[in-house]
Amino acid sequence: MLVGTAHADTAIATKADPKIQAMLPAKLKEAGQIRVASNVEYPPFEYFDTDNTTIIGLDKDLAEAIGQKLGVKLEFQHMSFDAIIPALAANRYDMAMSAMTDTEERRKKVDFVDYFTSGGGFLVKQGNPKNIHSLADICGISVAIDKGTTEIDDAKKASDDCVKAGKPEVSAKILPGTSQIVLALQAGRADVAMIDTAAGAYIAQQHKGSFEVPGTSYAPRRYGLVLPKGSDELAKALQASVQALIDEGTYGKILAKWGQEVGAIKTATINDGQ
């Protein structure tokens, strides 16, 4: 699976919906904006353009469309991925949008409005020299993983299974950011990177001839817009916005722009992850 090259300047617009606007909490209507936490290092979902300032990506385009539906601006703020949930818990932001997987463990602290499906996978050097296609293939292998992601737990479980089978454990290297795991793979400090299939495919496309994504996802999962617990009013407004974008076709156009049609959902849900 390879992702097509997108053009950040190709705007996809929609129209405001008064019924959905009426669902938005009064304080956000008055503010005219929703504060969004995001780790802007995860192409094609959110990353900095060549000016190192402008934020682009699938999530940013979807946020623009959601904002148009609601009549407010969704203002992104970059931070490390593992700092997002604590920032929401401290009410420093109204929501987060960072290709975050909706999991039972995370739902103890935050709520999700699910909008996309992806899943854990692998990024390897071209030709797949270690012949990695599943979690069973990474015994004794050096694996680079982004700090704070669900792939850490996947690697631990895989390592436990390796040991039970009498094979060497997985050597996991936890690194701060997607760019660091790609560098580790390039430099030979890791044999494989564990990463969502969507992001891995985008990286492979950007580094033509250097990397590939073998096989399919080993664990399909939902991505969600992330909200502090108790944000029921905002959650329902966001759910209605995403559903409206799906129904009118704007959602599909945004996914197609970033080559991510395979992750499309038909129904926006709340806390519908694993």
Structural key phrases:
single chain, 274 residues, D-Maltodextrin-Binding Protein, domain 2, three-stranded antiparallel beta sheet, 9 helices, globular, disordered N terminus, Solute-binding_3/MltF_N, signal
Helix content: 25-40%
Estimate the strand proportion. Answer: 25-35%
CATH class of the largest domain: Alpha Beta
Count of distinct structural domains: 2
Instruction: State the fourth-level CATH superfamily of the largest domain.
Output: Periplasmic binding protein-like II
Largest sheet: 10 strands, mixed
Shape: globular
Please state the CA-atom Rg, rounded to the nearest Å. Answer: 19 Å
| CATH fold descriptor of the largest domain | D-Maltodextrin-Binding Protein, domain 2
How many DSSP H or I helices? 9
Instruction: Give the strand tally.
Output: 13
Q: Mean pLDDT, nearest integer?
A: 92
As residue ranges, the low-confidence spans are 1-6
- The SSE order reads HHEEEEHEHEEEHEHEHEEHHE
Overview of this protein structure:
The protein is an alpha/beta fold and 274 residues long. It folds into two domains: 18-117 and 222-270, Periplasmic binding protein-like II (D-Maltodextrin-Binding Protein, domain 2); 119-219, D-Maltodextrin-Binding Protein, domain 2, CATH 3.40.190.10. It has nine helices and 13 strands. The protein has helices at residues 18-21, 26-31, 58-70, 84-89, 151-164, 178-186, 197-206, 232-248, 250-257; strands at 33-38, 41-42, 46-48, 55-56, 73-78, 95-101, 110-125, 142-146, 171-175, 192-196, 211-212, 219-228, 269-270. Strands 1, 5, 6, 7, 8, 9, 10, 11, 12 and 13 form a ten-stranded mixed beta sheet that branches. A three-stranded antiparallel beta sheet has the order 2-3-4, covered by helices on one side. Strand 8 (142-146), helix 5 and strand 9 (171-175) form a beta-alpha-beta unit. Helix 3 (58-70) packs across helix 8 (232-248).
